[in-house]
């Protein structure tokens, strides 16, 4: 039975520095750091391509909220690949690239489980990633080899297709919610900036009024003094 793998996983700190990442090389073996993709990847896609996409496109879209769910980018960043991302309570952003023919439950489960695990170094991330993927594959095998039902490879693929459609709808909704939250945050920030600017303008106008009436008072006093001097000459 075919074993599904994710293509690329990167964890980015709150200060946008990369902490760890994993990928598959040509032999399908997971390694730490940056490297080539699986043999199904396009030839012109490199480790730097995905890294640049993470920092130039994905990270600016992220809205960090407690309890954030996994979100899929609406626009395809690379033909033939999907991009998923989420955040954890430590302010880190977890990003995952997968081939479009991968069951969408895999990156969803991968990021959801990784965000709750200790990924402080490359070895721990590698171990956690392997565990999540192996567990997923074992579940598929157990379902496929179940003695209580006659499930063919085609039946399993049909189930995965239905699951993909449902997850796609969920992820599209999640993306819209994320965009709405981002727009709300921007509106709140704009409102705050407007209020702060209004306060500054009001203070400036108040000082201008103070200066104006002060000058008028001084001119009046000087005029009265000069008038008094003229009258008493």
TrEMBL record:
A Pfam family assignment: Nyv1_longin
PROSITE patterns, per database record: V_SNARE (PS50892)
GO CC terms in record: fungal-type vacuole membrane; SNARE complex
Membrane-crossing segments per the record: 210-231
GO biological process, one term: protein transport
Residue span(s) of domain V-SNARE coiled-coil homology: 148-208
Molecular-function GO term, any one: SNAP receptor activity
InterPro entries named among the record's database cross-references: Nyv1_longin_sf, Synaptobrevin-like, Synaptobrevin-like_transport, V_SNARE_CC, Vacuolar_R-SNAR_Nyv1_longi_dom
Keywords, sorted A to Z: Coiled coil, Membrane, Protein transport, Transmembrane, Transmembrane helix, Transport
UniProt cross-references to PANTHER family, sorted A to Z: SNARE PROTEINS, VESICLE-ASSOCIATED MEMBRANE PROTEIN 9
Descriptive protein name: V-SNARE coiled-coil homology domain-containing protein
Species of origin: Eremothecium cymbalariae (strain CBS 270.75 / DBVPG 7215 / KCTC 17166 / NRRL Y-17582)
